[in-house]
Amino acid sequence: MLPLSGITVVSLEQAVAAPFATRQLADLGARVIKVERPGSGDFARSYDATVRGLSSHFVWLNRNKESIALDLKQPAQRRVLDALLERADVFVQNLAPGAASRLGLGSEELLARHPRLIVCGISGYGTDGPYRDKKAYDLLVQCETGVPALTGSPEEPAKTGIPVADLAGGMYAYSGVLSALYERERTGRGQAFEVSLFDALTEWVGFPLYYTVYGGTQPARTGLSHAAIAPYGPYVCGDGETVFLAVQNDREWRRLCTDVLGRAEVADFFATNDERSARRDELRAVIEEAFAPLDSATVLARLDAASIANARLRTIAQLASHPQLAERGRWGSVDSPAGPLRALVPPVTVAGREPRFDPIPDVGEHTSALLAELGFEGMPD
């Protein structure tokens, strides 16, 4: 038994944010019924075709789900969705602004019909305010929340390499559903809540936001270095390789100088983080001068011995073969329309619990079975 076994989620979802949220619920045992357009389905299915002809986004986000294909503009097929909602515990949607209400799927209307239902709406900017009707995609929300202004080099801003706005919204939707289920256990009542990508990512921009509001200037773009802590970033070794290290306090700084750099006298020249941050170029020169006679393996060994946090800069291909993933058994296998595929084990590890790896569905793969379960003799017309 997984924690959400017996919970049914109906999701009118597409792209990343809502599918990310519902996949977390599915990984915990929930039955997730994904409602898709007949034919093309979730448009994320066609983002690319790199996973043996399947979209990398779709493979990532849609294991452990059932797919039913419905044209909700047809009243007869809309009745099928109503029948699904009669049996559902949770309804999730991330349709375009206003689309859910036009389909009769507004939260007030749904709760009036299904008082125990948990209704989660994911939007770009929320259901009120001047941006409520504005289309929102991940990069656009990143721009509106200032993320590229914080990311990149001093010369040029950059977006993040992962869809961080979608992920933020999806994670808050996921946690919102869990808390609503917990509350329903105590009250017996469902509830509606909304999550906007803008609000979610603004929360994740918290430290730069407070830094700017109270400091008068935003943190500088510093490439691969931390904007407010030094030394925290990349340093070149004698073999031309780059290692990353992170010093979190003055005690660690002195240990770095003594045990790694072999230059205890340097510690007093950069005694506080404010001094180190203000004199980054001088600091880098001192550290890289000490690393120049050493190869990267030696530097990393010294950092480990001194308990100074460090890392290598890996490519994504190197991540895929990372020894930590292999040693801890973090890869599983999931079936799909393209055959068996490698899939990452969910990050929450519970001793004795086997991860769920049910297949990634084809468009409408479960339509006939679900219609029969609901008592329909084929698709109504």
Instruction: Provide the gyration radius in Å.
Output: 25 Å
The spatial strand order of the largest sheet comes to 3-2-1-4-5-6
Coarse morphology: elongated
Proportion of residues in extended strands: 5-15%
CATH superfamily of the largest domain: Crotonobetainyl-coa:carnitine coa-transferase, domain 1
Q: Identify the CATH class of the largest domain.
A: Alpha Beta
Oligomer: single chain
What is the rounded distance between the termini?
38 Å
- Average pLDDT over all residues: 94
Query: What are the low-pLDDT stretches, counting only 5+ consecutive residues below 50?
Result: none
CATH architecture of the largest domain: 3-Layer(aba) Sandwich
Helical amount among residues, as a percent range? 25-40%
Sum this structure up briefly.
This protein has 381 residues and is of the alpha/beta class. 40% of the residues lie in helices and 14% in strands.
